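job 3f2a | input accepted
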Amino acid sequence: MGIFLYPISTHAEGGYVGDEFNLSRPSVSVAYPYRVLEIQNVFWDYDHSYFSCSQTSGGLHVRITKYFESSKTITCEVRYKWGTSDGSRYWTSTERKLYSIYCNEVNIDASDLTLKVGQTQRINYYASPKTPDISFISNNSSVASVNNYGEVTAYQVGTATITLKQNMGPDATCTVNVTEPVPPTSISLPSTQSVDVYSSITLRATLQPTDANPTLSWSSENSSIARVDQNGLVTGVSPGKTKITATTDNGLSASCEMTVTDVDRTPKTFDVADEFSEKTVYVGEFWKLEYTVTPSYANYNLLWTSSDESVAKVTDGGYVQALKQGKARITGTIDGFSLTDYCDVIVKGIPNIFTVWLNDGQQMDIKLDKNIKVLLEGDKFIVKSDEVNVEYDASDVKMYTLENDGTVETGIKTVRPDGRQGTMSFDGNTIRLIGFTPHSVLRIYALGGQTEGVYRIDADGNLTLGIDDLNKGIHIIKTESITYKIIKK
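job 3f2a | predicted structure (489 res):
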């Protein structure tokens, strides 16, 4: 059967770096009485340096990852079989479609900006919200500074260049010319305003002329009633009246009589944080309950109680300590109000730490509660307790340590290929190696591969190392044929 090539179709698409869009694969059709029998293959070709793509059922999902000039082409070829309805006669054809992809250059709206001393204006720029790593830099911050949002503030007469930088494309610049401010000829504020205690309101001064230097100094006659910041934001502190004053750089001033009104400080809600509604801990653990009371300025006295102080006790400040195995409910109550919430505490016994060291260097830490048994049954190494049953192939286990009721037990000897036996055990802050090849070398490596120490086994095949000499972290202890991994916490 022959191969027929159909004409190439084209499509344009694009955006800024970071933008994403979908390309639809070309549709295929044939003239009656023939029909498309099978889509055999869909192949997309694109430049991985500039696009991150994933194939979808209907086409290709594209993300522009790097800026490029002019345009790039993404190609789709659809290979399909077509022929008679019964398939007795068929042909293979390829439909090819070219997608011309463009990339917009991130740019600043205006190349020049004029500000007066004290003015602030945001630079408008063209980009996608998904365009990564856009930043602004001023080459003369003493004249004009710029923040990460493109807001430029003029400080003194002069010129500064603001550069918009992006990792994936060319920079754009804007020249900022800062001129002398126009001195104000008058200033006015609202004659009166009111604000609640704990609330805030912003006073706005009116200057004449309208382009006058906007720099103002704000002050409160009595900051114990209302305080004001240098943006004119007034916050009520206590009930009463005071005067808020705004002063221009050239000495003009205006005042507003601010009345601060009291608020209802009755607590409305009390809630223990969700993560503390039920808490499972071990004997000896100590933590603080977190909660919220609304409104935030409410006056209240919070009382804490425990349903069983022998299991868990709580202080007036909401600190809880687990004392013995059992269950207790810690209840908080707002004194004088029907507002309560609680934390259910489940206390487990002191955990036993069982550590299994495997021949491949892995360390397995298992927390067990009680009744721990270590068994060697045939070719199986088994750890049993009331809670778990862990099983290993004995050939995979190098050794184990068990901290049980304050004592440390170590077991499992490592058998070397030459028949010698060597064991590594822990005794307090000491690592003891016994039964290794006399005068052989032991090395300690950091996880990154750096050598931390080189030691020699003594004439009896033994070596003692101090754990205090090791930094916190993971260390690899390597003898001539055995490797251990230890973690110093």
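job 3f2a | Residues 186-261 form a domain with the Immunoglobulin-like fold (CATH 2.60.40.1080).
job 3f2a | closed
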